[in-house]
Amino acid sequence: MTASFSLTSLSPGTVLHGVPVVAGVQYAPVIRPGTLPTLDPAAGADLAEADRQSERERFTAAAATVAGRLRERAAHATGAASEVLAATATLAQDRGWLGAAEKRIKEGAPAVRAVDGAIDQFVEMFTKLGGLMAERVTDLRDIRDRVIAELNGLPEPGVPLPDVPSILCAEDLAPADTAGLDPKLVVALATTLGGPTSHTAIIARQLGIPCVVAVTGLDDVPAGTMVLVDGTTGTVTVTPDEAEAKAAVAEAERVAAAAANWSGPGATSDGHAVAVLANVQDGAAARAARETPAEGVGLFRTELCFLNRDTEPTVDEQAGIYAEVLDAFSGLKVVIRTLDAGSDKPLKFAGHPDEANPALGVRGIRIAEGNPRLLENQLDAIAAAADRTNTRPWVMAPMIATAEEAKAFAGHARSRNLTPGVMIEVPAAALLAERILEHVDFLSIGTNDLAQYTMAADRMSAELATLTDPWQPAVLALVAMTVRAGTATDKPVGVCGEAAADPLLACVLAGLGVSSLSAAAAAVQGVGAKLAGATLAQCREAAEAVLVTASAADARAAALAVLG
Ligand code: PEP
Ligand code: MG
Description:
The chain is α/β, with parallel strands linked by helices.
């Protein structure tokens, strides 16, 4: 055993828990992004009237320089990295906060103080708005730091370039920090804040490096500390035993190599078929998913096509977009979900009321109550796309809570010769799944929302991430109940929430009896390969074991004990 100098007060082997975002295991030293030297924005007397105009010009130039640099990096990056950098550049030039800062300078504040105050004002506003807006707070703070550094003639804050492969740990990461990362040098990410949909998560998925977010206690791990990040279990082990850590990395590499060889179709090792499908959000994503062994599309999130639209797209335009996805998977199963607008995915043209609790408000199918044409136009568009492509897609409604809602939706779909189903995301729907199945032909379980509503915990909250873990036995009990309803009525029940992207949990879901698993394209091979390595009896044994546990951690451990 080698005696090692410890950089942290945490004892060797301490396991910190977070939310797993991208699977994989890495063992390397920690690096942390550079922070700004502490600046006291309150310091400095108010500016004389005569100096205010030139200070405003200095500020405008600094903000433009920062935006320009971000745009330049966006031009050199690709895919999601380029998009997030471009979005941050746009935010850096947003009239709202620029105007607020200029106003402060006009009133006498020096530029640094004005920037700090204006950004604080917008951070507060975005935080109150919650959901996706709250996740942009990190971007706003990043812009503040860059503009202040520019005003003070300091180097831009950001990620240091490591000389050995390293694990980037931070409170949260702004897109500008993560977008240009070299995955050979930054081999994993871990953050104290952030949710599964934060920019950190998006970039990690694109880079294909393990990632854990919302890690409690990570702030106490300084740069230089050796850590083992496990993006499958969502853990960060501080100064682990070196031999054990290296063995864990080697095992993860073996699993990844096996996954890369999996070519479908989805089945257990003894031939029990469970279709492995892809979640997509547009034609481009569908074409990319078609490159994987995915056997179809289990969830087409249509609302994501229209997040930036002010007005409802015409039936013809919608039909064109849906037809692209149907074309990509021609001859295979495609499940199109009708607009799941509201809560963290507001659509301007859906006419959302002002609500104190949008996650519990008028979202998903509930919008059709006040705006029936929106649903009917969309179903017309799906039917037109089906005709154009000569396919018969399945359609499903989000956020169904009652059998009445399912019945009404099924009527609309059947009258257009579409196969109707509904999502099970609300505990009420899981409890009465059998009655819902009197009206529709299939169910698809959305474990993201089912966890949120079962555990009464906001799915966007990093603090509550342990509660919204789909391994929560209460959530799995509702999944089991839903599947039983499907078996009793001989109708298919799939899972399309993030739970289906976790290879171990996917096997448990297969053991519970689901007929399909639909996950992000990047997760398809990992899920398929894990399933192919287990017998149906093992999956069932794991399913029985998790249902009698009392915590998410115990459920995971019980499944691991059976499925390895
Ligand atoms: C879910 O809730 O699990 C789901 C698949 O829907 P979304 O994540 O789009 O809300
Ligand atoms: Mg949902």
